[in-house]
Amino acid sequence: xxxxxxxxxxxxxxxxxxxxxxxxxxxxxxxxxxxxxxxxxxxxxxxxxxxxxxxxxxxxxxxxxxxxxxxxxxxxxxxxxxxxxxxxxxxxxxxxxxxxxxxxxxxxxxxxxxxxxxxxxxxxxxxxxxxxxxxxxxxxxxxxxxxxxxxxxxxxxxxxxxxxxxxxxxxxxxxxxxxxxxxxxxxxxxxxxxxxxxxxxxxxxxxxxxxxxxxxxxxxxxxxxxxxxxxxxxxxxxxxxxxxxxxxxxxxxxxxxxxxxxxxxxxxxxxxxxx
Length: 275
Prior knowledge:
CATH architecture: 3-Layer(aba) Sandwich
Low-confidence stretches: none
Order of helices and strands: HEHEEHHEHEHEEHEHEE
Number of strands: 10
Strand order of the largest sheet: 6-5-4-7-8-10-9
Helix content: 25-40%
Largest sheet: 7 strands, mixed
CATH class: Alpha Beta
Number of domains: 1
Shape: globular
């Protein structure tokens, strides 16, 4: 089922991007109904639309048939949040969100792998933690930027879904306070943009918590786009860190994000666990 959703989401994104004639700063698509192409629980699907409707970064929406699938297009602007997010010295990447549907798919994969808690590091507006919450994870959202955390708190209140936003520096946060049993950590930030430093710190903190390491998963956002000085792009640029920390790659899922909207490739998310 998940592979089917991924394939059809990528098809819709590529068709929509190739034919989009609007001028919004960001745009994304969510199917309107559960279907054979998108066999998603109707309640979950409604919650994804609620997230977009209650999120002030989205300024407009309209219905559109894409590849004969009824969808809702959401258009928005993240400029102010982007500018604010770059002011933090330990921030690994400015605020550029994945698609809401992509966040949901990633949470589905994590659920299939059997994790119980979801910890989103560098969580932006909290969409991955939100999707974890509606899929019955014990979700935690760690974000250093106070403006983005205020946005998350607004979304929690407006959607009645508390995914536990915390305005904290992920490099300093004490994760033992979360009483984790079988968590999956999502690392926000590409390896080439300082995400490797963030991930190394998180791994060290996981190692310091007794009996946690072998039950923990880590998901990395990668890049398949070759740029000057981008280095080794195997495993989305994370191969060195994966080898150094003896992680096994369980799955790689390529999904639409804001930053790949105008590209022919998607963003690979690499699901790993400790050997």
